[in-house]
Amino acid sequence: MEEQVVVVAAIDCGSNSTRLLISEVKNGELKKLYKTHNVTKTSEGLEESKNISADSKKRLFKTLRTYLKEIEKYETNQILCIGTAVFRDAENSEAIIEQIKQKFNLEIRVITGEEEGQLTSVGVLSEQGLGDNLLIVDIGGRSTEIIYDQQNKINVNSLNFGVVSLNESFLKQNPTTSNEETLAIEFINNNLDFFEDSSNRRLIGVSGTFTSIASIFLDQKKYNDEEIHLKTIDYAWIESFYNKLKSMTVSQIIGKHGSLDPKRGKTLTSGALLVYSLMKKFEINELKVSKSDILEGLILKNY
């Protein structure tokens, strides 16, 4: 008997961006109907205040309202919605989750860093032909997941920092100062000491930081994730790109790169530094960027 086709929406309420995927699912395979993201900066100011701010909440609510209107256009069987590091860390997250439930009839399930990594791996590994011995890296606003296979088991190290928290703690301005940069690199490297053997690992990068970098690498005039998918970028280019970014102002970065979401201008330098530091530390010469990530993983895990 042929399996029924279902239409599922997945929403990822992240620390820096809020993302939506609407997909048909049949026999464990996805057919993308609609995918979008919005930089909501939900964790902006969280390092200092420990709370999701009123402005961040407003941006998040506006985006969720837009997404729900989009979801209505499709005959959706279910909406799956997750919250990541910002909801794990903020002292007022329970109150905001309750408001979202009352206002939008939407249940946000807060997931752990471990679960975030596992779901991301399901999404990435749904792509054919990637093989094994992978190092999957998902850079978020307030957490970074390092995911790797070992003896047929997926391991996740969830690091409690991302592009927004690096900005708020270290790289507070563009151009960066050498002192800020030194402290940031030291902090990143100290957090990467857990990984023993990265030799011959193939790096797969997922998330807005990686896809934005890939779009710039391809010199896209308009962002296009289909073109970006599984593109290879080498270490020398990443190093050179970071060194250019660190001496530019945010408005110069936005002005130079037409495909970049202007809201990512502020965090692109810290994202590029993190990618550069990872590749240097793990002695990896090239990376591939994947457009399949936690959203695909979330749907596949449930269907």
Attribute tags:
303 residues; Nucleotidyltransferase, domain 5; 2 domains; 11 strands; 43% helix
Rg estimate, integer Å? 19 Å
- Share of β-strand residues: 15-25%
Strand order of the largest sheet: 8-7-6-9-11-10
Helix content: 40-55%
The CATH superfamily of the largest domain is known as Exopolyphosphatase. Domain 2
Give the tally of structural domains.
Answer: 2
**Biggest sheet, open or closed, and with what strands and sense?**
6 strands, mixed
N/C terminus separation: 17 Å
Question: Helix/strand-derived class?
Answer: alpha/beta
Per CATH, the architecture of the largest domain is 2-Layer Sandwich
> Could you say which overall geometry the principal axes of the C-alpha atoms support?
globular
- The top level CATH class name of the largest domain: Alpha Beta
Strand count: 11
**Which fold does the CATH topology of the largest domain refer to?**
Nucleotidyltransferase, domain 5
Average pLDDT figure: 95
How many H/I helical runs? Answer: 13
Looking at how many chains there are and whether they match, the oligomeric state comes to single chain
